[in-house]
Write a structure and sequence with these properties.
single chain; mainly alpha; five-stranded mixed β-sheet; three-stranded antiparallel β-sheet; 10 strands; 5% strand; globular
């Protein structure tokens, strides 16, 4: 039941979740205690490992036992076995005790002084938790359930996945919104809540609890990545603020009291998400993490994984690559866009790693020649350098040409119609460059170093990811609306540079400065954002072009890192052209205030709007009707409802309906046209549609204000084929009469 069965069941679900998280921390800490990771990072990576186990272990047994309590108990047992094996293989020694991180008390004052981001992170977490609590089927005094602006839409879909997976218990699961179709959406972001829901806790707790843990992983993961990248907590702090408290120049449209009032009262009139003004770079907390569970749980793995993988590349240790590969291989059915972005990041980092290794070998050879007084470069070495310079120049010129194409054309017909070809051509050239660097590295260093790091990583990732992709993802993404040419993302007719300046604001300006002031090694780490933007600006991967922002925002992580480094250099270096230190500090303070205002005001306006937003999602009578449905109908009974996105029946009961909202089904690539037409026919002509009731196996008909508003409901016809078994206010539930 969506209200839960009591306190004991809530505690049991919480304990089940915490066991996996804490056991994951234990396992990872025992595996990494000798590595160069802080205790905070180890706890972060361990919590991610625990959540991955909670998402995947029940599914491994669900293939044999369905998504039942048996599968969950076996998953629990498997996690216990993993803990025992790791504890046995990593025997505690005197060295371990000496390194034990909890032996000494933490100097919290010094800790927060050196890492001020944790204070801002805590405040942002409180904001997120408050909005999540008030926006997640929050029950008001009259019995109705409410949501906020950002959760009014997608949350209904996620609730239907959670309740149907838990109540129907079949595996692989199907769409309750369109029975007979396999659920190909990355459903692990919802199945984790289904697992908790099966223990009898409330639907609200099952929805909220994993998201609370996930947001902490997202926050901590990005901070650790930037800190490991630049090795400065100040840069990581600024980058964290730029990414999570993002806002462009949209506030410039709000210059009157009336427009500011509209920001806080109207539906989606914020300075970061207003399509009619071409404001498309949405606020991360409000529009990406609160409503989009797949993105939240995908980033909860991706961001910590980037931090982990960065150290693995630097250390070039086999164990670290193996652990990173296991986490990466688990990503496709959590968030496919994060998996795709990770693939692009790893491909660029592979090139950078090979290039740096080849350069190191060249330096060794040059030093050897110098010692032997042989300063002349061999013809073969000169040829390799010329080829490498040619390839790098070609790649640079290709990117420059692409940028010019975007800059001078608002809508380019060639790119719009042939974007997929241009993208594939660019990627093909990039792959050739990868192959070239790999061949040189193998010639200079042999196969062993490559196979024990990147080679092993690739094999494990493919072994884990390909079964997921072929079982679920590829079968869904076969329509004409998937993987197709589309130029210039969601820019509606504005000049390219102006569009991104308006949407990214100060971060976009700092990106250009970074190309001149940031260190070469830092620019190398940030290089993946070139490839991500190149692909995402030429090809759409879903029917909704806007969804490419799930790739672009990952690229923005690197942009924010570079922008933060520019600001750190700006405020920490001495300005030699101003001799007076007081004047220098004053000017720096004024610049800092201006940057903060321009960078944060749009974010605060959007977050403030979300804080006060409140909309009725399900009426009190609709909630009562769903209680009746859960108590008096079977898990597989099909209920006829409207196709409104906020119909309470599929969301709260998990029962199959004939057809759900097109706003969900269309963007998943499903053909629902016939079912949608049949729903209308059954409401308007029940007697003449008896064959349709039989075709879809409909047992009950749900009629409320939504149905009256969408169809010409023929109650006289319903009386001939069904009886009213429950009613309250404007809601009636009709049960079809048994055939005589």
């Amino acid at each position: 039941m969506f209200e839960g069965y009591g306190m004991l069941q809530n505690i049991t679900a919480i304990a089940y979740y915490l066991f996996f998280v804490l056991s994951g921390v234990f396992v990872v800490h025992r595996l990494l205690w000798k590595e160069k990771y802080s205790i905070v990072a180890q706890c972060l990576f361990g919590s991610v490992a625990g959540v991955l186990a909670l998402q995947w272990f029940p599914l491994l047994f669900a293939f044999a036992f369905d998504f039942t309590m048996t599968a969950h108990m076996l998953a629990l047992g498997l996690q216990v076995v993993v803990c025992i094996v790791v504890a046995w293989k990593t025997t505690v020694s005197q060295s371990y005790i000496q390194h034990f991180p909890y032996k000494k008390a933490t100097n919290w004052k010094r800790f927060f002084k050196e890492n001020p981001v944790w204070i801002v992170m805590l405040l942002t977490f409180v904001y997120f938790a408050y909005c999540l609590s008030t926006h997640t089927i929050s029950t008001h005094s009259d019995g109705s359930m409410h949501a906020g602006q950002c959760t009014y839409g997608d949350m209904n879909m996620h609730l239907s996945f959670i309740t149907s997976i838990a109540n129907q218990e079949t595996f692989p699961p199907e769409y309750s919104l369109l029975p007979g179709h396999k659920l190909s959406y990355p459903f692990l972001c919802d199945s984790i809540s289904s697992s908790l829901y099966q223990f009898g806790c409330s639907l609200r707790l099952a929805y909220i609890l994993p998201m609370i843990g996930a947001i902490l992983q997202v926050f901590g993961g990005l901070y650790c990545f930037i800190k490991y990248w630049f090795r400065r907590s100040g840069t990581a702090f600024i980058a964290w603020v730029l990414f999570f408290l993002n806002g462009g120049l949209g506030f410039l449209y709000y210059r009157t009291p009336q427009s500011i009032r509209h920001n806080f009262t109207e539906f989606y009139m914020t300075p970061t998400n207003q399509p009619d003004k071409n404001l498309r770079w949405v606020q991360v907390i409000v529009d990406m993490l609160l409503p989009q569970r797949a993105t939240l749980f995908g980033w909860a793995v991706l961001f910590p994984l980037l931090a982990f993988l960065l150290v693995a590349v630097r250390e070039r240790k086999k164990k670290l690559f193996v652990m990173a590969a296991v986490a990466a291989g688990a990503l496709p059915m959590i968030h496919t866009h994060s998996f795709l972005a990770l693939g692009m990041i790893c491909s660029v980092w592979l090139v950078v790693d090979c290039f740096n290794r080849n350069r190191e070998k060249d330096k060794e050879e040059a030093m050897s020649r110098s010692r032997q007084k042989k300063n002349r470069i061999s013809p073969a070495e000169r040829k390799r350098r010329e080829e490498r310079t040619f390839l790098r120049s070609g790649l640079f010129l290709g990117l420059l040409g692409f940028s010019i194409l975007q800059a001078v054309n608002k809508q380019n017909a060639v790119a719009e119609n042939h974007g997929l070809f241009l993208m594939l051509a660019g990627v093909f050239c990039f792959v050739l460059y990868i192959a070239y660097e790999l061949i040189i590295m193998i010639q200079k260093n042999g196969w062993k170093g490559l196979l024990s790091t990147w080679g092993l990583f690739l094999v494990i990732v493919l072994a884990l990811a390909l079964p997921q992709l072929f079982t679920w993802t590829f079968s869904q993404a076969t329509g004409d609306q998937f993987v197709r040419s589309h130029f210039n993302w969601s820019n509606d007719g504005e000049q390219y540079v102006y569009f991104y300046l308006k949407n990214l604001g100060v971060t976009f300006v700092l990106l250009f400065i970074a190309s001149f002031v940031c260190k070469k090694k830092d620019l190398q780490i940030a290089a993946p954002y070139f490839l991500i933007f190149f692909v995402a600006e030429l090809v759409a991967f879903q029917p909704n072009d806007y969804d490419n922002n799930k790739l672009l925002f990952v690229g923005a992580v690197f942009i924010c890192g570079l922008a933060a480094d520019v600001l750190m250099q700006l405020f920490t270096t001495k300005w030699k052209f101003i001799a007076n230190q007081v004047v220098q500090r004053t000017i720096k303070g004024v610049v800092a205030v201006c940057v903060l205002f321009v960078g944060l005001v749009s974010a605060f306006m959007t977050m403030g709007r979300e804080w006060v937003s409140d909309y009725e999602l399900y009426s009190a009578s609709g909630v009562e009707a769903c209680k009746y449905i859960e108590q008096q109908t079977g898990e597989w009974d099909v209920i006829l409802t409207s196709t409104q996105h906020n119909s309470p029946v599929p969301a709260l009961t998990g029962r199959n309906i004939v057809c759900g909202s097109g706003s969900f089904l269309y963007y998943h690539g499903l053909d629902y046209g016939q079912q949608e037409a049949d729903v209308a026919a059954m409401y308007t002509d029940p007697v003449g549609s008896e064959d349709l009731f039989e075709k879809y196996g409909v047992s009950y008909v749900y009629v409320s204000g939504q149905e009256y508003g969408s169809y010409q409901v023929n109650e006289e016809g319903l009386q001939q084929i069904a009886d009213v078994v429950w009613e309250k206010d404007d809601v009636r539930i009709w049960e079809l009469k048994a055939e005589e």
